[in-house]
Amino acid sequence: MNPSIAPEFSRRKFIGACCAAVGTTGMLSALAQLRMIGAVADTGTGAGPAGAPAGDYKALVCLFLAGGNDSNNLLIPNDPAGYAAYAAARSVLAIPQGELLALAPHTTDGRSFALHPALGDVRGLFADGHAALLANVGTLAAPTSKAQYLARSVPLPRQLFSHNDQQVQWQSSLPDRMFASGWGGRLADLTNAFNERSDISMSISLAGQNAFQVGQTVTQYAVSPNGVVQPAYAGGAIGAIRFHAQTDLLKDDDDNLLGAAFSGLTTGAIADSALLASILQKETPLQTEFPKGGLGGQLRMIARLIAVAPSLGLRRQIFFARVGGWDLHDGQLPAHAKLFADLGQCVAAFHRATAEIGVAEKVTTFTASDFGRTFTSNGGGSDHGWGSHHLIVGGAVRGGEIYGRVPDLVVNGPEDTGRGRWIPTTSVDEYSATLARWFGVSATDLPVVLPNIGRFEKRDLGFLG
Amino acid sequence: MLLCFGLPEIFAQGALVPAARAQPASPAALFVATLRPTADAPDSTAYGSATLLLAPDGRHARVSVTYSNLTSIRVSSYLKLGAPRQDGVYLMNIAGGQPVAFAWALPATGNLTTEDLQKALNDGLIYVAIDTKNHPAGELRGQFIRATGSAIFIPPAPPPKMPGGPPTPAEAARFLIQATFGPTRGQIDDLVAAGLGPWIDEQLAIGASSQLEAARADYREFPPGTPKPKIGQNNRQEAWWRTALTAPDQLRQRVAFALSEILVISDVNDAVANSPEGAANYYDLLARDAFGNFRRLLEDVTLSPMMGAYLNVFRNAKGNPAKQTSADENYAREVMQLFTIGLNELQPDGTLKLGGDGLPIPTYDQTTITEMARVFTGWAVYASAAHPNFFGGRANYIEPMMLYPGFHDDGPKAIVGGVRIPAHLGGTRDLQLALDALFRHPNTGPFICRQLIQRLVTSNPSPGYVYRVSRVFADNGQGERGDLGAVVRAILLDYEARSPSVTHDMGYGKMKEPLLRVTALLRAFEASARNGRYYIPNPEYQLGQAALRSPTVFNFFEPDYVLPGPLAAAGLHAPEYQIFNASTAITVPNYLQSFIFTAAQPPEAALVLKLDPLLPLADQPGQLLDYLDLVLCGGAMEPDARRRIEQALAELPPRDSDLDRVRCALQLTVTSPAAAIQR
Lengths: 465, 679
Hints:
Distance between the termini of chain A: 36 Å
Largest sheet of chain B: 9 strands, antiparallel
Number of helices of chain A: 14
Distance between the termini of chain B: 27 Å
Number of domains of chain B: 4
Strand content of chain A: 5-15%
Structural class of chain A: alpha/beta
Structural class of chain B: alpha+beta
Order of helices and strands of chain A: HHEEHEEHEHHHEEHHHHEHEEEEHH
Oligomer: heterodimer
Radius of gyration of chain B: 26 Å
């Protein structure tokens, strides 16, 4: 949908099949669809579309932190021994203890933790029980210990520490094979049956084409975070005559490359704005204010799209948003503070917006990122790591807890592959499975969405209720 | 002009191939990226340049990146894949330090194969990105595009001879699209009768209309109702529109507009915003000097208090080692980078000059900037008082700046082009010598001429076109270097501007910038308001641009803008597309349309088109379209487009009025590709 990408390039790599018929291709059979609907009824989250109760709506928002977030400074040890070790190992990257925002999770393994000082909004959500943290999650092809990592005796994700490869693997949850589809795309393929209508896709991206939402049958739509500008349209019969002529004039085959670019871009802009206008036509303006900037704009538009979901006949929606700048090899401390402040404020504003719409417990936002970063610094910043901590926010979240296991944070210890690149203790599969289960996928159907899930211990980490 | 290298030498670690020993092998491909601040970093004046030399097998590249003047500490640099304004896919982290050169083997990554990367590079989708502490999501970026360059210059062949004789109406219209703010039917007829050369002569002789006077007149006639009224930027914009639409010195004003997009000041800057008269006076300066000598223009601009305020020459004091201050470098950098010589050495035809390593040759480095900055010290507000105050005094944004010798750095300086300025010459002499050095630099002719061609005629002039015009810049035929009047004449009468056959080249022409699309419509139909004003104070909302109001010193769009896709793959730049986005793609035609479909009784300030000449043609679709095609498209509308509009007219109900019919035809024409692209 984005006219600025050369068409042949984007179609081949990013846009899934456009065919509307379910079950004619690949991994999804009509039977699997029916099974899923039936199975969902078993778990009591509601019947299939025919008898779906009016209140049965769910949305997932994937918030991708591009570049690899140094989550070692997101969730920081706060007990005396833990902090001392943290400060010693992180040296110039260590946040002064006096500035930390202490957390009081309901359960504890004996250690105390705190949040980065710029994440005041997140601490508030955590205390209210609407935010949870998931520790040390990362791409894994199979559960991996340090010995196995060193011996290469289990399959490992390809190209660990490479931005693009890891971003794609987080979004596909297929770390050990060539990319074919994203887990969000597979999830959409499976759950689209919940939706009454498919004229507007349930998969919407606010950040352009992405790997996460590539599926077989459900096509992702890229939508601009900004408002809609519509071509002036007179209406009536004469208006239609003019409009059709204008459209045709833009279709003229032009040998001249500048003319062809003009026609192509104008046509694309008109189509994009028509799509968004058709989506938002029944909108009531939101009161909640969002921070200025790219992420605020994306989340605000997502809130608007959630608000109009009933008028679009959508009971399941998956959104993708993206914020860059996390690859802090240098100048980390001030830049990171800025990024965290924006992230916290935006996520809090989005949660308030979902409350305003009345769907706070039906919308779950979760962060993802290429990888964490090295525990030790390189002098001014940190380098590419592996396992990292992530944030889940929403009314359905069993918040106020730190799920998973925070590593012992011992450089060169049993969980470290070097410089504090922690081996993940939870896989992206288990993280995604928890989200997919809440979204309406039965335990038996999880492998359709997450083919590797059978290799891991948990199919539900329990952070969603 | 192909690059020929022995492959093993150039791609071995750090080795260079001496030019004399270059072995003819299959050619490597050179790609160049101009690094400019991103839209999210308008406060940045950073700049940079990157080159990528792709081996013939397409599987190895040597990349080098230089950059300077970041706002804050660099956080990361990358090669990425994506379109402008998009946050693209990471391909590779570029290690720190600078300048940096490294090998890139186009390795498969994520879901991209090597072939994908090769195609992306060819399509203009690979870019360099630099993130900083203040702008962690990106401060500098630039897309790679194929570049032509050579170590040894071979003058391009001269073009074919053109037949003489008077221009046809279509040829006259095409000329007026290049040389004015838009043709009128009467002007087309006059031009056919007079001939192009005489028209240019006449225009060169007409003096400049003054936008300062027009702004002041507008303010007097339409004073704002505020308690403390003062002249505003809205009055200046009125003067701009009035001049563009009605002034007789069309060619001069059109060239002044082009110059305002090269020698940029903007009322986005507070000092400029607070001085509408100063800004209008600056524009008048450009108009007065438009046909004069470039050296004179350069000096007038340098000493303009508006430019001084905009780029910090104003009150730029010499450095004080004790206090660890040094002269501000902003003007020194931009006068070289943007106003005269650019970042890389050029051949006389505007193509890149390449060194023995096959890479472009920077024209200056940071030391040059620091030395040049010392030249531009000691200038502040003109004052006639006996003891004027460098740091104070009444603001005067009209008179040229005055030298305060005590604040000028009088030491020796080693400036651009190897020129050495001895000590104790004084600020005025230092400035003269520095401007002389820039004026005489071999880059200046091709650098400025190419941009003027881009603003008037076509986005991608051939090296031959640039060469022919640069030679006129070098010598106007009477031994004078820098004669802008001669340059403008050469641009407009060149084969590549006048020949009908070039209009069929797939890369010829340019997209008209939105302001010019609007002036063309309003001029063609003698738009006027009942209250006599030409009042469009904020065109930027609908059009994305307004006179002297660009977001940064880089104008609304850059000469080297890369639009990924077929244009980039063909090595073509597309400057005006930088402001063509999902919003302006719709707001610009909407705005044009708003002049066509007006209420029966529009407000007294509304500009109303005079459609009388079209009404008699309402029932003659062929003649109606002849007229519209001529005045709005320069006669370039394709037969298919014409047929489609005629079809729409035929579909209109018979009871539709003549006015409705001509409005329909006008709307469809003015929003069509034929009217948006000039060829």
